[in-house]
Amino acid sequence: MLTQLIALGLLAAPSGGTAEKGAVIATPDRTASMTVVQPSASRGSALPLGAAAWAQQFDPGDHAPYAIDFTELLDEDEGIAKIEAIKVSSTAALLGIGVDAASGYRPIIDAAGKKIQLWFLVDQAFWEASSFAADGVLLPVSVRIVTDAASPKRYERTAILTVRQL
Asked: CA-to-CA distance for 68 and 51, rounded, in angstroms?
């Protein structure tokens, strides 16, 4: 089932979203911070302008947590109530890249309600793919969240994951 969702370029959270909370253990270099005013620097290969990038690149054989910090977009007393959807690009799907949905690795919201955490997976058959050689590939991962404000807000933001042989 996960493969079909990935192949469609969409991995939606179960039952229209998840509000599962837990401890976010992703390190600062594996945390992309969303800003109110996104930079407009151009990126190649049709990546969204202003998308945040994770500093730590991802090796196809890795299995480590990555986080997205929404603090700047949220009011002080506001938090993330639900992760509505996580979308990986069709390019990512074709390269066997997805988001782990197994128990203990599902996307979660941190206890403070300001960050989400997800774990990426690459199908082992693709670990040595030539696409991951040299500079690797830049892949957009979009996350849509809903806040717990009295009038809930919805944000969809994109982060860029660099996948390459390290």
From this structure: 12
